Amino acid sequence: MTLTLDAPRIVTTKPLLSVENVSKTYGNVQAVRNVSAIAYPGEVLGIVGESGSGKSTLLRMMNLEETPDTGTYTLDLPDTPGNLFELDRFARRMLCATKIGIVYQNPHLGLLMKHSSSGNVAERLLVSGERSFAILREKATTALDASEFPLDRLDAPPIELSGGMQQRVQLAKAIALEPALLLLDEPTTGLDVSVQALVLDTLKRLQQDRQITMVVVSHDLGVIRTLADRVMVMRRGEVVETGLADQIFQDPQHAYTQQLVHAKL
Ligand SMILES: Nc1ncnc2c1ncn2[C@@H]1O[C@H](COP(=O)(O)OP(=O)(O)OP(=O)(O)O)[C@@H](O)[C@H]1O
């Protein structure tokens, strides 16, 4: 298996995702401070920074699990008007189920660990209104296959699977309804290096095949370098630098980015 670095895709259209000037405080901790981010259709935005820099809080906002104190969020999709932070809980849930997929670092957050793997994916498919067991299972199998999950383990519950396989079930669930946006929160952190490379390979292939817009958060520059077209560097809740991945890795401008990149080399 080889991972190749492709030239960044040229994007000329409107951003699919626009987050503007979001801030979030927990008690006396300013988790995110006046952050803006965009992702163009078919692009992978990587968000990198040390632990506590606000990456996951920002991603949770993009998944409408978290509402900022200030700021707006729009997705340029049909029937998705206005500032999404103003939607009520039901509308948020429907939007997330049908248009946004997410893979968490911790599979317990994304999966029912004692239900079968195919059942976990089928549960997501129920949102589409499909009720035929045979069709749900067939579609779940297709999504698991696309995520390179071993199909002889369809009935195994995630609790009995390896970390890499659990991430593949989360991924299958996330892509089952062909979302416009896929959010990945430290998708390979905690996996063995060889398993990590295989999961990254699957993500890269899926992105290339389906042109899904992705936002990937990681403290690991290797993950960001493998997946991202454009990179946003966060520190202490703020964005310190944004640029094309090649520019960030080859010619970082901010002292903090330079430190991150040189520490990795
Ligand atoms: N629900 C919460 N309640 C209180 N504080 C929180 C909450 N979520 C995040 N924080 C705080 O906000 C800051 C940013 O956290 P966040 O998880 O977004 O950072 P991160 O860059 O994703 O780091 P990590 O990779 O370690 O999760 C941290 O100081 C964290 O303790």
Automatic annotation (TrEMBL):
GO molecular function terms listed in the Swiss-Prot or TrEMBL record: ATP binding; ATP hydrolysis activity
Record key words, sorted: ATP-binding, Nucleotide-binding
SUPFAM superfamilies: P-loop containing nucleoside triphosphate hydrolases
One GO biological process term: organic phosphonate catabolic process
Protein name: Putative phosphonate transport system ATP-binding protein
Domain ABC transporter: 17-261
Source organism per UniProt: Shimia isoporae
Superkingdom of origin organism: Bacteria
Database matches in InterPro entries: AAA+_ATPase, ABC_transporter-like_ATP-bd, ABC_transporter-like_CS, P-loop_NTPase, PhnK
PROSITE patterns: ABC_TRANSPORTER_1, ABC_TRANSPORTER_2
